[in-house]
Predict the 3D structure of the following.
Amino acid sequence: MIYAEFNCHYDLFMYYSSCHGLFISILFFQAYERGLMIAIIPFTSKILEPCQSSIAYRPPNPWTMGILSLLVEIYNLPNLKMNLKFDIEVLFKNLSVDMKDVKPSSLLKDRIRQIEGNPDFSNKDVSASQAPVVAEVSSGVMPTINHVEPQPEINSTSRATSLPNMLSQYAAPLRLPTNNMVEDDKSALIMPEQVSSLGLSQVSPSQTPSLSSSSFSLSQLIAAIPRADIYFRINEKLSSFGSLQYSKIMDMALDKAIKEIIGPVIQRSVTIASRTTKELILKDYAMEADDSAVSRSAHLMVGTLAGSLAHVTSKEPLRVALSSHLRSLIQGITNNTESTEQIMLILVNDNLDLGCALIETVATRKVGLYSLPLY
Amino acid sequence: MANLPPSLSIGAASFAAPSPPPPSPGASSSSSAAAAAAPGAAKDRKMASAEQLVLDLCDPELRENALLDLSKKREIFQDLAPLLWHSYGTIAALLQEIVSIYPSLSPPTLSPGASNRVCNALALLQCVASHSDTRIPFLNAHIPLYLYPFLNTTSKTRPFEYLRLTSLGVIGALVKVDDSEVIGFLLQTEIIPLCLRTMEMGSELSKTVATFIVQKILLDDVGLRYICATAERFFAVASVLSQMVQALADQPSPRLLKHIIRCYLRLSENSRACTALNSCLPNALKDGTLNNFLQDDHVTRRWLQQLLHNMTMAGMGGAPHGGLDHIMGM
């Protein structure tokens, strides 16, 4: 009678509990989200343990099996702490139920649990999630270093290269062969087309977005040229043609001529030099682990190549443009056509290399602004 | 011929402190001494000196001598091209040699010594351009574009003539294998105007190489379409070819004539170009004036006959002569 009475009381308790089955489920969900399963699992385990003795609620009672399914789902969660796993295993053993025979529920999939300080799960999960943050920080630092460091070297190198060249050019004796003019005009007919054509054909789609910023940077670079330091060579022979403001005329003509031709020249030179440098540096430094060494070499190489190409490519187009502007400016001052041509030839031959050196400087600086697509 | 040993493996230590290479005269003397001993040993020493010379290219003090030696021996070393391309810093050194003479192109102040030195570098680049394994990487790096300023010069002095001829040799090596990728690159980078300039005012040898390059471009379908795409391009090529035929009367050159006729024949395979040729083909090719040059060259004679036949067929079915002139905008 005592046993029967006890059993009756337990069943009554379970009967009342089953009427509030939703309560237990909600209790589990809240425990899962807030990291309280460490309390609710032992509690549930104690409640369900006597089911084995109950006629009504022993497995496979649907209500009881529902709770067991939820427990199996919890048991399979990654990084679940061992003590919780152990409690669940003991419960199944006491109920003589094989965990493999119970299909896990899927009630917790859409629920987000609190991660920080959650006592239900081990620390592996937390440490794994922190790794990307560290990698992100380290990758953010490198580009800045690469970009800043090479600048001074490039400038000093290009200046050192340009100066001796300019000096040696000016030391050369003055020459005014008439035949060269004809040949130069002839070559000029081909060069401008070639330059502009290469400029157009070399522009790839990936470069299109940077064109607007490119032209802006180009204007800045041109404005940055220290024009106050520019000293034009004015030949003494010119004094016999009258007291004209040759320096002023030269300054205006050169400024117009450079602006006229510099766009396609820079575009072509930088594009070709970047491509060559990328291919050769990647080949030569394939085994190099030091990124800064690779970047330094790449910037030195691309600056030298772009500057040299810009200098040699701009010479004839600049001669044509400069001659044209000088002719129109001088004609506005003097009426003698023959003397106009002579004045123009003298001014062009004496100052053409100066103009090319300026363009070379712009190309060398310009290419430094690009971040080479080496990787 | 024995293959070269595996490519040089230059470790990080070599960068930090490269060992001083032995002097070239010593290497040469040991090589010549070994030549008397055994042929096999001589080959090994020559191979070893090739590697040493390639290393010397990176040292500005030793570069000039290394350039000279390597360009002399480039036909002995079958695998010199991969050695040049894949060794550290070698191609960059050759590019340095090229851009360093840009300032002497205009005004033309190139000295014979400087010309010889850069032409040795160009000879090595020609090896790279010729080799099947290094041709495409060479093209991908756009290295031929650094030679275009040389082809754009007009000075007739010997140093410049030699410079242009050697530069054309590099381009010629690229087109020899009839690779459409090579032709596409050359068309995109406007090589044809540069070749036409040389065909107009170059020496006989330069003219021959330049015409050979144009011929190879025409033999490619894309090249033929490109040149015949506009009347302007077609007449630019046709007029230069015509000038060259006229000049042959004064300076006979069977080799050059062969390339000229081949260009004309290929042009005649394009229907519009073939029709246009009726109005601009030099009479010297029709009236047998040049037959003396072709007596022993049966291939070229057959080409010429085919050319005249193509033009005759086009002339029959074509529009009236006057109308044609109007259409072509003459």
In short: The interface with chain B takes residues 165, 168-169, 172, 175, 183, 186-187, 190-191, 193-194, 197-198, 201, 272, 275-276, 279-280, 283-284, 287-288, 301, 304-305, 308-309, 311-313, 315-316 of chain A (CB under 8 Å). Chain A has a mean pLDDT of 66. The domain at 1-101 of chain A is CATH 1.25.40.180 (Serine Threonine Protein Phosphatase 5, Tetratricopeptide repeat).
